[in-house]
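Narrative progress, year one. The postdoctoral researcher (J.K.) led the effort to move from monomer predictions toward full complexes, under supervision of the PI. The following entry was the first complex the group processed end to end, covering 488 residues in total.
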Amino acid sequence: MNKLYVVGLGPGNPAQMTYQARAALDEAEVLCGYTVYTDLVAPLYPGKPVLTTPMRREIDRCRMALERAAGGETVAMVCSGDAGVYGMACLIYQLAGEFPPVDIEIVPGVTAALSGAAVLGAPLSHDFCVISLSDLLTPWEQIARRLRAAAEADFCIALYNPASRKRADYLRRACDILLEKKAPETVCGYVRNIGREGQQSQILSLAELREAQLDMFCTAFVGNGQTARLAGRMVTPRGYEAKL
Amino acid sequence: MNKLYVVGLGPGNPAQMTYQARAALDEAEVLCGYTVYTDLVAPLYPGKPVLTTPMRREIDRCRMALERAAGGETVAMVCSGDAGVYGMACLIYQLAGEFPPVDIEIVPGVTAALSGAAVLGAPLSHDFCVISLSDLLTPWEQIARRLRAAAEADFCIALYNPASRKRADYLRRACDILLEKKAPETVCGYVRNIGREGQQSQILSLAELREAQLDMFCTAFVGNGQTARLAGRMVTPRGYEAKL
């Protein structure tokens, strides 16, 4: 049957891809995706056709992939991080009904919450939330409500899309909401360009995170009430320490 | 410098490991971990020494790994899924101060929230929470508070450790809390033995999940108010459909 893989590439360097992801790319006759992501893998496959659409043309991109797969080619739609976490998997399923049957297989990958956490130490070792601060597709009120709930119940939080040129003050607004319930000294961190050239990270307080100048290449992490700095790392205890 | 890798293996089959994880295992002179996890990788390395401790002896296990690394061996502590999500990364950092300096490197992996989601479709395509229902290390009141917050703010939820022999009714109790705010027809799913022999999955309503007989090999998924069944899959829209 016609086959469409939706592949999570991980943070961007080939070493953090899974063997399953690599096998899907090997098998694919056509690679498809946003240019920034196809550029990460195209060099591994010289001569393999690559279909791209510009930023924000996700619907066209998914239709293109489905159309080619329905036409008989094995297609790999590539996503950064995981294929399902703010990735293209949902849209592929939503659009699949417009085309003849295609066998869709989701290939998971290491999302930024995990790859970024590994750089900082162990910030997500207890219950956590993943929240995107982008209001392109979600009303800010909904984002604010989730930030408030996450703070009230003392979750660790991974913040995706913490800022962009057009949303320069969103991280500050998010931190203000978190500060209604979380202490200003709550241990936080961020990582820029996870696993890629120019990787950079910092551990800082929630009050300091509020002032940090992050961009769309960053993922931010907010600890829970137990998260500590330990030898330069951000560490959220799992609870074993009660047995020490 | 003495080196200790804390390695997330992914769901358990070698194909879902990253290249980085495999390289750490290759380099390690000693493998360390809970037997169930070391058994997954030991066959790849015949003759490589394996150090294990029984279930719940996590502190001994981490001390053993740190001691061997401090003594000059390159050690890989293996964890299922990701090294930081309910894994050993935090405990390694907490105990490291007891030993001479060791270079600790966390190697992230595909946690069950991601690998299970890929089996079901795209259930976590919008903001989500990861919550463990195990009260071995966390008071039930804290778990209940987080479930309540996650339901109130309409997060998608991945439930780890949804049940065990001693906690047979925990999933039911959790669903009862979620049902205070989420509709009984909320689309849910679960996966048993993700990526391993005997993998099994089901999509069902929240009311049905409440009655499901899950075990410690399962991960459960609860949708948000927009999550739908689409051609037999569990799909949470990201918001692009507003543009369709």
